[in-house]
Amino acid sequence: MESIVSELEGTLLKNADTFSYFMLVAFEASGLVRFAILLILWPVIRLLDACGRGYVGLKLTIFVATVGVRMSEIESVARAVLPKFYLDDVDMEAWRVFSPYEKRAVVSRIPRVMVERFVKEHLRADEVIGADLDANRFGYATGFVKHDTCSESDRVAAVFGEEPPCLGLGRTGSGSSFLSLCKEKAHPPFMSNKKHDHQLIRPLPVIFHDGRLVKRPTPSTALLILLWIPLGIILAIIRITIGLILPMWAIPYMAQIIGGKVIVKGKPPPPPSRSNSGVLFVCTHRTLMDPVVLSTVLQRKIPAVTYSISRLSEILSPIPTVRLTRIRHVDAERIKSELAVGDLVVCPEGTTCREPFLLRFSALFAELTDRIVPVAMNYRVGFFHATTARGWKGMDPIFFFMNPRPVYEVTFLNQLPVEATCSSGKSPHDVANYVQRILAATLGFECTNFTRKDKYRVLAGNDGIVSYTTITDQIKKVVRTFKPFIN
């Protein structure tokens, strides 16, 4: 059996510095105070590394980032937040060398709880060799790692048994003792084996992820975020206040002054008249602000269908909201009654997705009207994501408006012709799938069969109804649709 063992940091991941990943744990699992304390200690950690005491700096980083934090919170961040940032940093040449081997192991300086899920699910390694975080009997991290009497090379040898690894990947001068066990050694930069080029050349993509930070918090980025937050809070209050008190026609002009931007493509339909019932705007769901931005573009308050937004978001919303129950016949009647008096906005994905994928569309909207106008929504932000599954949803609009220059793109497609609706005999599911496909094509996204339940099961991990592995199996079944990830 061909086998391989590789370092994670500086080899499979391009960056050998682990500091930013601990900053993510500090921010997402604990909060701004721990985030700031860890950043203040960064010069000390760098000094220790420069003096050849990097292992002491790593222990200090682990202690400050994790001490007193519930292990369940650290596991949640490792499951829902870190994989996206790890994946963005993967060295593709190292991955091409690593992936064809039958047995794969990864050695990491980061505690296993922070990397194991990503390495096994996305890099498809069989084993992760690293330190384990210590926890007290109440489930809180002590900030220390469990002492292991076995050396790194001994643990690697235990994984592979009597047959040593065929190839070892590691940085030059990293001091990794396991490389001496390998039949062959390789150091970055790598050259991939061309005979494997027909295989999948990218790790399994991250479709669902969570967390507030858009960028990996390197020391410079983290400092910029900390300096911006007080200004961002003030700016968010000003933007929200203006949105609540100004008339719709004035908001686009004011948005340019206070840093926002909305790009509109396509031709929106005219307002409803006495002879016509309302139009159902079917939108992709990128953030909580989708219906608000649509109303701003159309310069009239269009009610939005909602499922699970917070009461604070409803209070702050400048447009009417129609809260549904997820009871099909009840929701159908509510939507019909709203369409009878005017336009309505619906996001049939049921939840947001940050990556360039569209979740499966609920077919309910297709059953209720033939006047369907698809609208492709997309957005760009600099510092903070506008929606989160783990945090308090009431903060979603505030975090969106805290970004220095939030940009929205709104693309109106033509109203569906009658032959593309249920009136021509098509099933609601066919109509919903058709709308999903044309919106995905407009945005350059990929269609998936995943739903809101799948998203929360992935982010909940073992606390959910199914495990991440179950979702991984589903992803593999539809991997042929992931064109950007296949050679």
Automatic annotation (TrEMBL):
Alphabetical list of PANTHER family matching this protein: ANCIENT UBIQUITOUS PROTEIN, GLYCEROL-3-PHOSPHATE ACYLTRANSFERASE 7
Family stated for the protein in its record: Belongs to the GPAT/DAPAT family.
GO cellular component, one term: membrane
Keywords: Acyltransferase, Membrane, Transferase, Transmembrane, Transmembrane helix
Coiled-coil segments on the chain, per record: none
Residues that span the membrane, as ranges: 20-45, 222-249
Name under which the protein is recorded: Phospholipid/glycerol acyltransferase domain-containing protein
Organism: Escallonia rubra
Cell compartment(s), UniProt: Membrane
